[in-house]
Structure prediction request, 991 residues.
Amino acid sequence: MGDRLDLPQGTLDLLILRTLALEPLHGWGVSERVRQMSRDVLHIQQGSLYPALHRLERKSWIKARWGTSDQNRRAKYYELTAAGRRQLETQRSDWAKLTAAVADVLGTG
Amino acid sequence: MWRDLLIRLRALVRRRAMEDDLDAELRFHRERQLEAYARAGLSPDEARRRLALEFGGLDQTREACRDARGVTMIEHLMQDVRYGLRALRRTPGFTLVAVLTLGLGLGANTAIFSVVYGVLLRPLPYADPSALVVMNETTPKVGLVSVSYPNYADWRAASRSFSAMAIVVGVDYDLTGGSQPEAIHAEAVSSNYLSMLGVRPALGRDFTAGEDQPGAARVAILGHALWQAQFGGDAGVVGRTLTLDGDPVTVIGVLPEGLRASDSSDLLIPVGVWLGDDDQAAARGNRGNTVVIGRLATGADLDRARTEMGGIAAGLAREHPDTNAEFGVALRPLREVLVGDVRPALLVLFGTVVCVLLIACANVANLSLIRGAGRAREMALRVAIGAGRRRLVAQLLVESAMVAALGGLVGLALAFAGTRGLLRWLPADIVEGATITLNGPVLAFTGVAVLAATLVFGLTPALQAARTDVTTDLNEGGRSATSGRRQRRWRGALAVAEIALALVLLVGAGLMLRSLSALLAVDPGVRTDGVLTMYVGLSSDRYDADEAKQAFWTRLLADAGALPGVEQVALGTNVPLTDNHSRTDISIDGQTFPVGALPHPDVHIVSPGYFRALGISVREGRAFVASDRAGARRVGLVNRTLAERYFAGVDPVGQRFAFGRQAPGAADARWITIVGVVDDTRMYGLDNPSRLEVYVPLGLAGASEMTLVVRTSGDPAALVPSLRSVVAAIDPERPISDVATLTDLRDASLATRRVTLLLLVGFSALALALAALGIYGVMSYGVAQRTNEFGIRLALGARPRDLLRTVLGPGLALAGAGIGIGIALALGLTRLMSALLFSVSAADPATFVSVSAGVALIAFVACLIPGWRALRVDPQMALRRS
Prediction:
C-alpha cells in the first residue's frame, strides 16, 4: 500500500488506452489490468476511472457495448477505436520522449 | 465537433437510460471489487468499509461522469431557463417593462433594417452586378448628360475595359388598341442589354443582333407590370400585336418581375426600331435620353476603365470638335446610380433606430441593476451554498437573453405590422423597385440584434450581481456600502450614455426641422394651390401637320376652360417642381461666347395663359397674347436669372436671342425678340437653385406633347374625370398621364426629407422620454436608498435647501456630462447627414444650443421630482424604519 504513486496529469488516459489496446475490457478489468501490469504500484480509483472512460468515449477514442462477463454477468465493455489506436501511438511516443528527457536531466537514466 | 455535440445531445435525451447504465456499470465494479477483497481474505464487513474508503462517494463519481459526458452544460442551461422563467414571473412589472422597451427598440430596428436591406444591401437581380457600370457623357455646363448614339458606337468599338456595352434609350409612346389608351415609357435597348445583365425574359425570346440595325422589325418585350395591367398576365400574349403611336408592334416576350433597372419602363423595343423612327437618332450631337451600361471585363477595374474611357472621349472631342468639344465621360457603379440618392436618408434612419435600441438597452440595464440590488441577498446565499460565480453570471445572462428574446418577438410583431404602413408612407423614390419583406436576412439581423442587446444590457448587471460580497450582503440585507457605490457609478454611467444618445438624435431632428422649414420658405415661383397638371401627347400620324396640332391644342384650351369651376387653363411643355426638362444652347444678339460657353437655359413652349394659371409674375414687359402666332413677329420671354446674368445694366426687353450658335450677322428670321421678363421658378424641386429659362409662345412653336395646367377654385382632383372626357371628346385615342396637383409635386420634392424628419422626430422623442426615465430612475432610487440619511439629517436640523442640493447636484452633474458627450458625438455624426440638410450647417449653433437647453431642462425636471420627495421625508418614520 505504501508504495502507491499518484498518477501525473494526463497519464490516466494513456494507461486506459494501452490496456484496451490488448483486448476489450470492462471498467473493473481496466483497473485490475493496470494494477497487475504495474506490479501493484498503480491503483486507479473508481472516482477517476469512470469519468475518464466516459470522457474518452466522448472523444470517440474508445467505444462501449454491453456484453457478458466470464461469470455470465452483464458488464459494459470498452474497446479501442481506430482513432483511439492512433491516439495511443502518438501519446506513447510522446511519453517515451518525455520520460527519456526527464531521466537525462535527472541523471537517473 | 459534430460527434461531440451528438453525444452530448444523446446523453441529454436518453438521460434516464444513461443514468441507469452508469449505475449498473458502477454496481458491477463494486461487486467485483468486493469479491476480490473476499478472495484476499477480508470479512464482508471489512471489505465494505475498505470499498467505501477507497472508492469515495458514489454521488461524486456519478456527477463526475455526467460532467465527462458533457451533459452538465446543457443541463445547466435548461436549469437556468427554468429558473429564469420563475424569476421573471416573480417580477412581472420588470419583465413587462423590459420586454416592451426592448420590443419597441428591436421592432424599429427590424422595420428600418428591412428597408435598408431591400433598398441598399439586397444583391441586384443580375449576374455579378458589381461589374455593371453606368456611363454618361459630361459637360462642364450641366454635369451628366445623355450619350449620343454614334459616341456609344465608338466607345463600344474602342474600349477594352468592358466585356459588353449596351445602350438604353428612353422613348415615350402612346399605347393604343388595349383596354384604354395609355402613355407609356419604353426603353429602346441594344440586343445585348438583357444578356449583359444576365437576365432572361420570363416568357418568349430576347432580342437578336439583327434587331440593332435601323429598320428592324417592330417587336417588343413587355415589362412585367404592363403585362399584368394590360394583359392580365396572360401567358398567350407572345405573338400578339400592340399599337405604339399608331404603328403595330409584335410582342416577343415578357420581362421577369423585380428587374429594378428597367422597372420604370413599361416595355423594351430593339434600338434598331428607334434608329429607324427618329431621324435625329444617328446625329452625334443629339444627346436625348440615353444611358450606356457596361460590364467590366474580368481583370478590369473601375479606375482603369475611367482612364481608358476618358482617353476615348478626348479623342472623339478632337475628331468631332463641333459636337464633342468639352464632352467627357462619367462612370458610376450601377448600384450607386440606383440607390445613391436615398442612401443618406436611410443610413440616418438606421443610425437613429440603433441609437433608440441602445437607449432602450441602457434603460433595461438600469432596471436590471435595481432588480439585482433587490436580489443581492439571494445571490449571496447561492454563493454561500456553493454556486460558482461563473454559474451565476451565466444564469443571469440566460435570464437577460430570455427577456431579449421575448422583446425580439414583440419587435417582430411590431415590425410585421409596421413595415406595411412604413412602405405606404415612405416616398416612392426611396423604395421604388425594391422588394421589402421580413425575409431571412432581416430575421437574422433581428437575431443578432437580440444577442447584442442581451450583452449590452445583461452583462453589467450579471457581473455586478456575481461580484456579491457574501458576508456583508447576507448581514446587511443586501445593501452593502461598496456594492451600492459601484452600482451607483454604473447606473450614473448608463444615464449619461442615454442623455448623450438622445441629444444626438434630437440634434439630428432639429437640423432636419430647420432644413425643412427653410425649404418650405423657398418661393417656388408659382402658386401651387388649386392647380392640376396632366400630360397629353399627340404622337400619331393624324397630327403630323402643325395645323392639326394647333387645332387640337386650341380646342383643348377652349373646352377645358369652359368646364365649371375652371378659373385658368393653359399649356406648357415642362411644369415646375418636376425634373422634366428640355434645355438647349442659345445665342444672344450682340454678345459673343467661346466654344462650349453658350447660355444653356430650360426652354418652355407655353400658351398665353400659362403665367396667370401658375401665378408666375411678369416683372417687365408683357406676357404672351393670342396674336403671338405663326406669321407674327417671333417673340419670347426670359426669366429674371437670365436677364440679370446676360443683360446686366441693359433693358432686356427689345433684345434678341436665338436657338443654337448663330453668327453675328445671322438672318433676322432666326432671332427671337424678348418682350418681357418673368420671375424665376424652381424647375427641379425646391432644393435646387433657379436656372436660366426662356419661354416661346405655343402659337409660334407648336409642340406634339404638352402639360395641361388648370387652376380651379375647388378641389383640383375632382376635375380629372371631366378633363378626361374633354380630351376623349376631341380624340378618344389620346392618352392622359402624369396627373398631379402642383401641391403633390411640391410635396413629392420634399417627401424624403419630410418622412426622414417625422421618423427622426418620433424616434428622438421616444429616446428623450427613455433617457428622462433613466435619469429619473437613477435619482429616485438614490433618494429611496438614502431615506434614512435624509431623515437623520433633517432630524439634526439640516435645511431643505441643502438636502435638495445634495440630491440635485449629482443628477445635474450626470445631465451635464451626458449633454457634453452628446454634443461632441453629434458634432461628429451630423456631418454624415449633410446631404439631407438644406441651408443649415451640420454644426448649426442655434440647433445645438436649443436642443442642449431643452435636454438640460428635462433632466432638471427629472431630478427635481426625486429631490422634492427627499424633502418630504418624515424624519420620525425614516428613523423608525431603520
